[in-house]
Specification:
With 754 residues, the protein is of the alpha/beta class. The protein contains 22 helices and 29 strands. Strand 3 and strand 4 form a beta hairpin.
Amino acid sequence: MKQIKYPILFFLSLLTVGLTAQKKKMDYKDASLSIEERVEDLLPRLSLEEKVAQMRIFHANIGVKSDEKERLELSDRVIEKLKLGIAGIKNPGEHISPLAAAKLNNELQKYIIEHNRWGIPALFVTESYNGVDAEGCTKFGRPITSAASFNPELVNRIWDVVGNEARLRGMHMCHSPEADIVRDPRFGRMSEAFGEDTYLTTQMVVNAIKGVQGDYKGLGAGTHIGAVAKHFAGYGQVLGGSNFAAVEISPRTLIDEIYPPFEAAVKEARTLGIMASHGDLNGVASHGNPELLTGVLRDQWGFDGYVVSDSNDIARLYYFMKVAESPEAAALMGLVAGIDIDLYAEDSYAYLPEMVKKDPSIEKMIDRSVRRVLRTKMILGLFDNPYVDIKKVEKTVRSESSLALAQEADLESIILLKNEANTLPLKKEKQQIALLGPILNETTKAAFESVTGDQVTFVAAQGFELTDKNKGVPKLLPTSSEEINKLVDIAQASDAVVLFLGGDEFTSKEAFFNNALGDRATIDPVGAQDELVTKIKALGKPVIVILKHRRTLSINTISEQADAILDAWDLSELGDASLAKIIFGDVSPSGKSPVTIPRSIGQLPFHYSMKEINNKKGYLFLEDGPLYPFGHGLSYGTFEYKNLKLSDSTITPTSEITISVDVSNTGKVKAKEVVQFYLKDDIGSVTRPDKELKGFEKIELAPGESKTVSFTINPKMLEFTGLTMEKILETGDYTVMVGTSSKEGVTGKFRLEK
């Protein structure tokens, strides 16, 4: 590594002064001009090699770091790459504190600006799965966890913090959120997205993007970062739930169910970027698919941002997917399709300068992509204000308000799946409660004590771990009878038992291209968890199960044995305290399941909105239906739905109908309820979904309080892709259901007339 000091050498300082003076005379440096004018002034100045440099991103782990005195160190490889400028760098400073990262990124940006001819700044790129994926930032719950809140405004506020914390540490773009629909729990990346439903995912994605981008205004103001919605398109539908496998989706399903979150990301949320999917789409590689990346994304939807490849995927068109004859052919295929930035690869867009010598027409496509990259940098204000205000970092990142928001999100996202005989909430009274199980954290006991004070005595023991925690290919660990018996003995001496079960971060994770597995061929809980819950249930003590996991699990034994189940998915850094607040009744649970919970992997595919004909037959020796349906979630309150009313019995292509329902809390505690609105097309010219979520509203009611909740039905909601593959409205009858889940509610009818 080479240490970079300022000033480096006297002659470099003179050169910098000269270049700076020259640049100030150029239109692209003039902030009073439009972005388009500035880009069109800069682009012709670039050499071919400088243009291609603006189409490449490398990872900081190849040689960007700070020394022990927090001075910038760059490897020879990085220094060489930065001579011509660069589109961006992934994750600089991710493993150091926000303040140290801000200082590092300021120095890094200064070096980049001063060491390319035109002073073009770089994009520093992060990701967000539990908040900003970097050291020292607020750790929020996973996206699928926040989807369980059914509260888009809350998601907007979470991602607003993400965008602000990322910008303060010197980041500019985020390869998140995921707009994928995830319906196969074998897939290890399930928790990175917002669930199985198109409408819910769309609402969450739009609010995440608006939040992280500061409602777009935060981009140029320097307070937020740009979003890159991913993975376009169909990535969550990989066959067998296996990463990098083929994707087979009917064109109708693609248009009606997979595209809408991406379309809304472009049209409503104005996402700055889109990332292409790793996979193919019905045989056509996504990174070489002009119909997808240009025809749909740009021509139909009007997207004007940049498209970035996923890791090394342009090169993989040749050596993995085998749809290109050579590395050069792969690069051309990606360029023609509409990929503007090559992520990481050394054997893809690096070939473009030599390719232009043989075919000069390629440069027009290069110019097209470079315009998009430069435009993004202009939108973010990087040519005018490329540095972080160091004074703001420590005051803002991981602030008390951000931590409070993380816990608020937890409390709205925890799902009460089961509560036999009102086992929960527990009372804060003199008793001993055992906190047991393989997903127990070292800090869980203290978190529970912080909620109950000294009224309750807790004893905690993990007992055994599920895996060896190998980041590449983790292995399951055996569990001895002695380990199980020790936990049973602790439970025997306690008044109630809280079991922490599910999966750790190693039982569900991304299966990287090389030397890593993360998908599963079964979705049963791993290890001795079923045995543990069965033996403890036999003691006759109240058994509360807390599920922590990153994929849907078929929890048959747990569901049968537990008296109460709290589904927590993957919560924030304050998650255990949030769980204690729910368990002891400080807050009533209000989360709803963003997925269908199956009884068996053999039921897959199995989402609530499948075609009605899929429900005709069940399976031998298996009870019909899911363990818990989409949208399910209990409360400490009890809610009654009645008086469903429609403002009209018919709707036309130019009219709307208002539906309303009275919701009452007939219980004894204040509680929140997610009122869910579903539509069913009774008869269609093509087979139609059993029902589709079209709206929801989260309300809070005191005991005895009632509220009238209304939704508007408009013709757009009734459109679908017909026989000729065009969007149509069809005359016919519709059933509307408003209720507490996809399975339970009050219904009404209306008719579409033309």
